[in-house]
Design brief:
The complex is a heterotrimer of chains A (312), B (285) and C (419). Chain A is mainly alpha-helical and 312 residues long. Chain A has a single domain (61-309), classed as MetI-like fold (Orthogonal Bundle). Chain A is 71% helix and 1% strand. Chain A contains 13 helices and 2 strands, in the order αββαααααααααααα. Chain A has helices spanning 8-44, 61-68, 70-101, 108-116, 123-133, 140-147, 162-172, 175-187, 190-198, 203-230, 235-245, 263-272, 277-309, and strands at 47-48, 56-57. The longest helix of chain A has 37 residues, at 8-44. Chain C has helices at 2-20, 40-54, 69-77, 89-97, 104-111, 120-125, 148-153, 163-173, 192-196, 198-201, 219-235, 237-249, 271-279, 319-330, 332-341, 354-357, 362-370, 383-398, 404-415, and strands spanning 29-35, 59-65, 84-88, 127-128, 131-132, 135-140, 143-147, 175-176, 182-184, 265-268, 285-288, 303-304, 306-311, 344-345, 374-375. In chain C, α11 (219-235) packs across α12 (237-249). The radius of gyration of chain C is 24 Å and the shape is globular. Chain C is built from 19 helices and 15 strands. Chain C has 419 residues and is α+β, with helices and mostly antiparallel strands. Chain C has 2 domains: 30-140 and 305-375, Periplasmic binding protein-like II (D-Maltodextrin-Binding Protein, domain 2); 143-304 and 380-415, Periplasmic binding protein-like II (D-Maltodextrin-Binding Protein, domain 2, 3-Layer(aba) Sandwich), CATH 3.40.190. The chains are: A mainly alpha (312), B mainly alpha (285), C alpha+beta (419). Chains in contact: A-B, A-C, B-C. At the A-B interface, α1, α4, α5, α8 and α10 of A face α1, α4, α5, α6 and α12 of B.
Chain lengths: 312, 285, 419
Amino acid sequence: MRQPPTSMSALEKRSFRNGLLFAMPWIIGFLAFSVYPLCASFYYSFTKFNAVTTPEWIGLSNYEGLLKDPLVLKSLGNTLFMALVSMPVNLCVALMLASIVVRNFRGRAVARTFFFLPSIIPMVAATMVWIWMFDPTYGYINNVLRMIGIRGPNWLIDARYTKWALVLMGSWTTGTTMLVCMAALQDVPVSYYESAQIDGANAVQRFFHITVPCIAHVLVYQAILSFINSFQYFQQVYIIVTANSGTKMGASLGGPQNSIMMYPLYIFHNAFTYLKMGKASAMAWILFVIVALLTVVLTTVSRKVNENAGVE
Amino acid sequence: MARQRQMTAYRTRQLIFRILFAILVVLLCVIFLAPFMVMITTSFKTNRDAFTLPVQLLPREWVFENYPKAFETIPYFRYMANTAFITFFSVLGQLLVTPLVAYSLSKIRWRGSKVISGLIMATMMIPISVTMVPMYRIYSKLHLVNTYIPLILPAYFGKAFYIIIYRQFFTGVPNSLMEAAWIDGANELQRYAYIALPISKPALTTIGIYAFLDAWSDYLMPLIYINKSDRNTLSLGLQQYISEHTVDWSRLMAAATIFVVPVVIVFVIFQRNFVQGIATSGLKA
Amino acid sequence: MKKLVALFLALSMLLSLTAMAGAESDGRVHITFWYAHTGDEALVFENAIATYNASQDKVFVEGVSTTDTQKLIVAMGSDEAPDVISASNQQMIQYMANGLLDVAQDYSDKDGFDLSVYSEKSIEASSVGGRLVGLPIEAYSIQMFYNKDLLEAAGYSEPPTTVEQMYEMAVAVTKLDENGNIDVLGYPLFPYASARQELIYAFGGRWWDEDSNLTPQNEGVLASLNMNVKYRQLYGMEAVDAFVSTANTNRYTEQDMFFAGKQLFRLDGSWLPTMMANYGSTVNYGITFIPGTEEHPEYRGSSRYETTCICMPSMGRNKEAAWDFTKWMGTEGARIENLGTGNLPALKALYEDPEILAMPGYAEFIEALKLEKGVQYPVMDDFGEYVSMINNALDEVYAGVKTPEQAMADLAEQSAGLN
């Protein structure tokens, strides 16, 4: 061990100063962009105000109002649907694509490019194209289905299918997850497969007994990330609904029967359409608590998974 | 003889497998490319053609007028310039700050680094919707609505996801490298600038790419803060196009195409960086 | 990587420089005017603005076309609020409730501007609490457009005067293709907005009464919805939805279902003839009053009565210039606007204007206005939320998830807490 030139406490002090200085930008940002808005939002949730007026204290009325608003629960349900259905679907698609592009074959780079491309194009453009493809009469999806004898649903207007349309759209943009999975697959030692093959394990067994445990930690991490992201789901629905309703307030703000009214979208409308900033803040805080709780649960679970898989 | 038969059986199986695999890959490629094909071919159709049954992928009659019309309706280059401006300064901010903070958390041993790391993780759980209203009020009071400051400023204070990726990278770099320089009497800043930063180029590339993609296609923030048409970003511009109550779909697809093409070009050129950067990012966390 | 960064840096600096340029100042007061018309109609507004600017040496108006009401609301609450906006009277009620608008009558009183140039009905519709909030430039009501050829082919020579006749004709004309898809739609289920309003009003249905009480369980509402559901069930809910969905996708384009001869009845506004002429539609159409019921023929001709007004956001900074432009746009500009878009005037003088009189469909619409059966919006803070609830309830009825009675009972319960 080299001996530090000065006494421990002085070194500690200097390290503390340096560490703090280096982390300072983030600390300032944390106070300004997280702590302050969180506190302010908490305060606002007990007030009534619009963009112009000053907040006026009304106690728990906003929270009471949320209990009476069926759309709050409905939008929360829709958001949870996306989190619980879309996340596993996306993971499966990503894993499937990754196990394809991890193999060595001619055209591998091209395939990888094609699979990844959808993830980088601006969401607005992508959503427009999907709206067009989902058209029940002239859209390509239903026309392809018709060719194989299936009568396709009215994707974006039939409340039973709207969310599935979103799931379908989402599974198209799993490129990033695919790449992460691919890298994880590459890290699985080839010797594991070789010895398994000698033991006579078939492909399916190899997949579930070697591949999955080896990359479990990556999958869990991706799952948590995409789970948290589901609670930010906003853009796609906002664009779809705006495209459908046009100018004259023709349709519901949350799609047919509010079936794709996502929680963040409803917060947005309360804040910026109905100008109920207090109610929006109360909703936002409830969301924050839910996400925080779920994240704690998920991280605990993931730690368990990692321990079982033997990864630290 | 029996062995040979076994070999041929094995070969046949291999061949069948390879054919099935090829079919699967081609099929998936077609599925993943389909929306692009639809977008591009529709942009060369007349609107009447697009609404004629049976639906055909290729235009019955190729027309090119949708493109000049799309450029006419949307001040495309203006929006592109606006988006590039925002993206450039956002990426710059992230590149400046992320390594600093990550370095502090992984390479400086100080009381508090654990706490900060925990807090950084925690901020990832804060939904944008929670901070949206208070932030809007502040910017409005500071007369900063309709400027790019609300969109750019946060980048100069680090984003949790990027910092975590970067810290992960630093953790993997052996401390011996840093200590060698420390003995030469370098101070912390010099060690950071001359050793840590150059070593971490791959991580820098990764977060640069992430920051680029995030800023380039950001939608919610411009939607809230920008409401002057000449300050629109590309995403907003396209959205504005569809919210008009007369939507000419073939022209809309032309507009979408010219929005997508630059991104695709950038991607194809820098594909290697994209792929490697992202592949290494989510791994060890 | 370095090259990438350098290239990107150079490019964005160049681009951002061009983004910075462009602001001009010529000593005139610059004000912004946001209007909600788009496409060809936006050109009409720009034309009017240019006319104003050319006549001015003190004020310069910059026009912005946006249909995004969120953006407008956000902007009005910010320090960069537009100086002048156009808003429907329905929006004005909401904006007033939130203190976002100045009252135009305060300015006209001071200025000695005579408000009696506007029709009484338009003043009534554009007032909140007895004060005129914005200067009405256009009025609109909805009438029934019908495809004459389709109707004649089915053996009818006259358009319907009652909803019962309308239903009968709709069924006679509706055509399915071999796949069970609807090729021609008879019943006027599109556009969404008029299905929610005029198709309800025709049955005497009302979503609110004159004292702004909410009345979703009104008999007429239920009667209308029951006939609606009957038609949907006849052809299959999904087939009808598919047609309406596509109709919505290409609404007001060249391929619009009515312009393409695939819709028998269309409840729509006075702008439709102008649009059809612009797209060169060859459909042989007529315009008539919205029908009443057999039992209550007096319901015939009921329609929403809406105005679009020029108003001044309270956060706007250049009040004097804003009022000057508002006044101009509310009078001379209104004529340019009415002529260009085919919207009905609110200025009394324009009812006699020969050029306005020559607009397609104008005569029929003026006649309908004279019936004085316009339905006005209620004055309530949460009107936007109520409309959203109505839409949701209608979605449930259309999809067959709930019966009209059930859905409306639920709506009554949900809307009980609104102000």
